[in-house]
Amino acid sequence: MREVPTIAAISTPMGAGAIGIVRLTGPRAITICDGLFTPVRGGPLTEADSHTLNYGTIVDPDDGAHVDEVLVGVMRGPDTYTREDIVEVNCHGGAVAQQRILSLFLRLGAELATPGEFTRRAFLNGRIDLAQAESVAGIIAAKTEAGLRVAMAQLEGSVSREIGGIREDILRVLAAVEADIDFSDEDVGELDREDAGRRLAEIESRVRELVETALVGRVLSEGIRTAIVGKPNVGKSSLLNALLMRERAIVTEVPGTTRDTIEEIINIRGIPLQLIDTAGLRAGGDAVEQMGIERSRKAIAEADLVLCLFDGSQPEDDRDRGLITSLPRDRTLYVINKSDLFRGQRPRFNAGQLPAAPVIISAMTRLGLRDLKERIADFVLGGALPPLEGAIITRERHRQLLEATAGALATAQQGLRVGLGVELVAEELRAALSSLGEITGDEIVEDLLDIVFQEFCIGK
Ligand SMILES: Nc1nc2c(ncn2[C@@H]2O[C@H](COP(=O)(O)OP(=O)(O)OP(=O)(O)O)[C@@H](O)[C@H]2O)c(=O)[nH]1
Ligand SMILES: [Mg+2]
């Protein structure tokens, strides 16, 4: 049998940095690196203790040239990320040193790692399950602190434990059903269909609860999609900048300044918001502006929350009325801007026709921004979002498999009710188990692994 290949990759991002890490994992990791390593102190890496840092020089064996001064971490399996021997060379950052060290490793017999291959090995060697492996990608991709927290909890097994519990409960019902199949002509007592159905209904609702956390999961990892919309020149980009506290978007007195959507993440009372500044909505304008407006409409359709902005120093017109009726009321907050222009007086814009009381702000002086943030937080926390704790699903793949599980459980209950053969009920339960198994990777399909790991970066 062919030995498991030793793989190598640059694990730090491209570009200049103080330190770069080139990593090896596999049975020959330590010998390969030792072939290039001249210790400054101490002996060869092959004799180094596990989990030590070794100071020395990487030397090109062909011409004896010194490539870089390095610290080499030696970690012997199985107490490592992949459960194999791992070597991490801490060299100088910048593309050249890292690339040269990597190519020397390849010359000595290492193979170039594919994206996510280190984590894939951690999975294949049984250190983590598939849901945990995926959480590693979640940690790397996390855009918000809350998203990072959820991904870390997943790595520590929050989702896997919940799935494991559900699996066990299904297995118990399945055992009762199968006993009925095996001993149907003996006197072991008939399957209590009503009781089995009740237990399956409970399990199904647990699965559905988990499915519902997917919304929170998306919100935490990507932020609440919040589109700022309104007519040109009402101050949408100014509001984005004010909330971000930096001049991110271009602001001018010319209507139609913003042509494309601009997205930024901000944090309001611990809630991540993905703010989207959009092109002002109006007819006419050139082709570029019209394409921007098309994107604005898409942003509204996809938004969890719409901030509809008006210029309070101007009376409302038909376009405002059109805008108000076109927006989804249940997820729109109305905001009247430029309050500094009507200080202490009623805005010229008549707020009476708005479906809900507006927040009055000045993006320029920042007056009212705290009220606005409060209203946004109320919307999110008082809304339909389930609690932000426990197992939270963040992957569409997991959501779909849980839906399939719930579907199979529902069909099984139906079967029990209408007196379907126990074999068929058992079949549905096995389908439910198999969907759950795909989440944690108990049911491995090679293609599935390729799909899961392809979104990783190389070197992880
Ligand atoms: N007085 C006052 N002027 C403001 C306020 N907010 C924005 N403005 C001004 O209004 C003009 C338009 O602001 P923008 O933020 O570019 O407006 P916009 O809605 O993004 O405009 P488009 O991108 O063209 O759709 C600029 O001259 C801003 O300085 C405000 O609170 N008070
Ligand atoms: Mg703008």
How would you sum up this structure, described in words?
This protein is of the alpha/beta class. It has three domains: 7-113, 2-Layer Sandwich (Gyrase A, domain 2), CATH 3.30.1360.120; 135-218 and 395-453, tRNA modification GTPase MnmE domain 2 (Four Helix Bundle (Hemerythrin (Met), subunit A), Up-down Bundle), CATH 1.20.120.430; 223-382, P-loop containing nucleotide triphosphate hydrolases (Rossmann fold, 3-Layer(aba) Sandwich). The chain has helices spanning 29-34, 95-107, 117-124, 130-141, 145-155, 158-182, 193-222, 236-244, 287-302, 318-326, 369-382, 396-417, 422-440, 446-453, and strands spanning 7-10, 19-25, 37-39, 52-59, 66-75, 86-92, 111-112, 224-230, 262-268, 271-277, 305-311, 332-337, 359-360. Strand 1 and strand 2 form a beta hairpin. The model has no long low-confidence stretch (mean pLDDT 88). The structure holds guanosine-5'-triphosphate and magnesium ion. Magnesium ion binds next to helix 8.
**What's the CATH H-level superfamily name of the largest domain?**
P-loop containing nucleotide triphosphate hydrolases
Strand fraction equals 15-25%
Distance between the termini: 26 Å
The residue-averaged pLDDT reads 88
- Assembly level: single chain
The CATH class label of the largest domain is Alpha Beta
Element string (H = helix, E = strand): EEHEEEEHEHHHHHEHEEHEHEEHHHH
Tell me the CATH topology of the largest domain: Rossmann fold
Main sheet specs:
7 strands, mixed
Helix content: 40-55%
Structural class: alpha/beta
**CATH architecture descriptor text of the largest domain:** 3-Layer(aba) Sandwich
Query: Which spans of ≥5 residues are poorly predicted at pLDDT below 50?
Result: none
